[in-house]
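Dear colleagues,

For the upcoming journal club I promised to circulate an example of a predicted protein-ligand complex. I picked one with 4AD because it came up in last month's discussion. The inputs are reproduced below in full, followed by the predicted structure.
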Amino acid sequence: MKHLDIREVLHSEELRGKEAVVCGWVRTYRESSAVAFAELSDGSDFERLQIVVDRAALAVDPECTKPGAAIRVRGEVVKAYKGEGNELNAREIDLLGKCPPEYPIQKKRTTLEFLRGIPHLRLRTNTFAAVFRVRSVAAQAIHRYFHAHGYYYINTPLITASDCEGAGEMFRVTTRPWNAPEKTEEEYYKNDFFGVKAGLSVSGQLEGEVAATALGKIYTFGPSFRAENSNTTRHLAEFWHVEPEIAFAELPDVLEIAEDMLKSVIRSVIEECPAELRFFDQFVEKGLIRKLTSVAESDFAVCPYTEAVERLKRAHADFRFPVEWGCDLQSEHERYLTETVFGKPVFVTDYPKEIKSFYMKQNPDGKTVAAADLLVPGIGEIIGGSEREADYDKLVAAMKERKMDLSAYEQYLALRLFGSVPHGGFGLGFERFVMYCTGMENIRDVTLFPRSVRNIM
Ligand code: 4AD
Ligand code: MG
């Protein structure tokens, strides 16, 4: 179907005085005796294109005036009567698809919760269309950043036999029936598709290390799966994960890369999505643009875990979970640190080894590991990363302490036998990052079809 994107028609000065064809969905329609105005959206731009109808010259099919109806308009592009952009003086309007009054997206503002019940239609609202344009721009900017800095893009397997995070949160992958006849677990898996217990990967890191210790700098950007039974506004069962892995890098390098990458992507979002950000700033998070601009321009804070715990213990705050050295930080603690103590993104580093994963580099103190979580205001953790343990014996010892099955990690361990190097990386939760850029408070509202406990619409 030959037509132009509304984005182009709205903003192009060269098109003025020329004829153009656009397609889209009617957002509003109002008429007086002489003229009628339709606002048309095709998803390409935050703004809608105003269609002006000279009622004496053009009779419009009433179906073309209904909110949600899909139409095609041929007309002359002219400078808008109000504002900067263009509008279209209609010469011909065709109906592409009519929209009956049951259409659940109506003009009055509906709640996000109501819209969560209609994931197949909610992208036709300003809010959701804006979220997904920002999401796309951010994803492209991430790829651009890594490409420009010499990283190779690697695709790691989604089906795996090894649990990267060791937290037992893997979905199982099986072709066996629920009433399989085997008497033991071992036999059951032996007869399964892969002959061993398999699941959906919680992280591409372990395979990412394989690639980084050959190509130097790599990143993955794909889905990860977590069967966490946590029904929160920050957890999904299926989320998108950005995981760079860098050879010849230590923890400070990892922090530097994470900070530089985030700032660069935020700058791209500010540059490429001005209308979306103005909208979010006005209706979703007051001060969003100021927040993003200042984050892009100032340094992130760094705070070792031990100091973080001291600060939390001194805090005048009513925490639900008490804080002691050795405890995992709860969301309330993370948010207190980043929002109240530092007032900006903060890397918390050097966590107790007991609460972190087996692969993290053990610090000389024997108690902590070279880990770093990035906490941001409003959300808490958006990045988890570390330097990796590059010493074969130390890594094996950490795995034995955790009673892990070493045979499932032979290849991973072998990286420490053949030319082992200091290396590290991190994982960015892409949806959490999109929340941060848009101010949206629920991870379900930045995901097309969110999957979470008891929810697979
Ligand atoms: O902190 P995590 O578990 O770290 C890893 O998986 C490492 N293997 C990453 C690495 O070093 N390559 O997860 C990384 C990030 C978290 O900080 C969070 O932003 C996001 O992934 N994340 C989730 N996002 C949405 N829903 C979930 N259930 C998530 N679990 C983790
Ligand atoms: Mg984490």
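Two points we might discuss: DSSP finds 13 helices and 16 strands in the chain. Residues 126-148 form the longest helix (23 residues).

See you all on Thursday,
B. R.
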